[in-house]
Write a structure and sequence with these properties.
The protein is α/β, with parallel strands linked by helices and 394 residues long. The protein is built from 14 helices and 16 strands. The chain has helices at residues 14-17, 68-73, 86-102, 104-112, 118-128, 149-160, 174-179, 190-196, 216-221, 239-247, 261-264, 280-300, 332-342, 371-378, and strands spanning 4-8, 25-28, 36-39, 55-58, 78-79, 141-145, 164-168, 185-186, 199-202, 226-230, 251-256, 269-271, 320-327, 347-355, 358-365, 387-388. β6 (141-145), α6 (149-160) and β7 (164-168) form a beta-alpha-beta unit. α3 crosses α6.
Length: 394
């Protein structure tokens, strides 16, 4: 029976770790040569990568803290948990929308400064509340940028609150399109969305194309008194442009889960301490999802919810399985099969899937390949790694 070593770089919910049988898995925060790494927000970019590493699992959706490109070149899949925290983030986005609409944080700050009792206090309350007049959500327009798991939930919830909702996502999946309410209108492009929205919320990953997606030009096209919500990534919004728009009266409020000193010092900004996925339920959902995905890869080589590997799931028909990540170039599978044929091994089943520059091949064999055969496969130009899957007891 094989034993896998799993190193945790952050605290991972027990509900997830309990899914790793202790007779097959050693789990600790300090392991020199782990087979897998589990983390949340730990920054791996400067971390030496052990030669034993087979998989990395992020208990969350974003992977900016993980050197994905470097791991891809090593043939190591990176797993994440899209959608596991969607409800938690949605609830906080709606809370942020309501706080901005009704000036709740500013009103709370005002109330905490009040002195006196009785009639004196009542007069102070009545006099001060005039500064916190807000707006109601019905008939206002919410623009949702990014219609993944979170964006879809936010859009649907806003519709139920009586808002008009615009959505924009040129890469929306069929699954998310089915989940999106038919009442959500389609924006032609980002500029169209900003021009028509009273409130804009962003739910996209941070990439070169989304860096400063919310910028001075798009803010200028919004209706006066608009609100920006950012519970995605800090750099998606140009903070300097937002502060300028707030100071000029163009924007009414900016609600963000990513505080900076400049934002904290602006009275029109509502900053939260990165609470998006900070619920017991979300942390457990993320932990369970990522542990299940990593375990399935370690034990069976199957890949589900990876940010760099192609989705590859092959029902295991033989105890002898070989997993081979390699470059996505011509003739790779033929060379692998030639090496197996040289040992006269019969192939019971096989699956090869590709994603961008990387391909992944799973092969079920009637007999186990010799070390010499494995070395011949490793010697093929473009092969990233070769792993014989363990034969686990039932």
């Amino acid at each position: 029976m094989s034993t896998f070593k799993v190193r945790t770089l952050n605290s991972i919910a027990v509900a997830g770790l309990d899914r790793l049988p202790r007779d097959r898995y050693e789990v600790a925060s300090e392991l020199a040569q782990p087979d897998a790494v589990l983390l949340r927000s730990y920054k791996m970019h400067d971390m030496p990568l052990p030669s034993s590493l087979l998989a990395v699992g992020r208990a969350g959706a974003g992977t900016n803290n993980i050197p994905v490109a470097k791991l891809s070149k090593l043939g190591v899949p990176v797993f994440n948990t899209p959608g596991a925290n969607a409800n938690a983030v949605k609830e906080l986005v709606i809370a942020g929308l309501l706080m901005a609409a009704r000036n709740v944080p500013q009103a709370l700050d005002f109330v905490r400064t009040l002195k006196g009792t009785g009639e004196e206090l009542d007069k102070a309350v009545e006099s001060g509340k005039k500064a916190f007049v807000g707006f109601e959500l019905p008939k206002r327009t919410l623009g949702v940028v990014g219609l993944g798991a979170i964006g879809v939930e936010v859009a649907n919830a806003a519709l139920r609150l009586g808002m008009n909702v615009l959505g924009y996502d040129p890469t929306i999946t069929v699954q998310h399109a089915w989940a999106l309410s038919s009442g959500v209108q389609k924006a032609v492009n980002l500029d169209d969305l900003f021009a028509r929205a009273d409130v804009v919320t962003v739910h996209v990953p941070l990439t070169k194309s989304t860096d400063k997606l919310v910028n001075a030009g798009r803010l200028e096209s919004m209706r006066r008194g608009g609100v920006i919500l950012n519970f995605s990534r800090d750099a998606i919004v140009d903070s300097d442009a937002v502060i300028a728009a707030l100071n000029a009266g163009k924007l009414r409020s900016y609600v963000t889960d990513f505080p900076t000193r400049a934002l904290l010092d602006n009275p029109k900004v509502i900053c939260l301490p990165h609470l998006g996925a900070s619920t017991v339920e979300a942390e457990e959902n993320c932990a369970v999802m990522v542990v299940d995905n990593v375990r399935e890869f370690l034990e069976n080589g199957n890949v589900t919810r990876s940010v760099n590997f192609p989705e590859t799931v092959l029902q295991r028909t033989r105890p002898n399985r070989v997993a081979i990540p390699h470059k996505n170039v011509p003739n790779m599978v033929a060379q692998i099969l030639t090496c197996l044929a040289a040992q006269n091994i019969n192939i019971a089943d096989m699956l090869n899937h590709s994603r961008d520059e990387l391909s992944y091949t799973l092969v079920d064999l009637d007999t186990q390949p010799t070390e010499a055969t494995l070395e011949r496969i490793r010697g093929i130009d473009g092969i990233l790694s070769v792993r014989v899957l363990p034969i686990l007891d039932a």
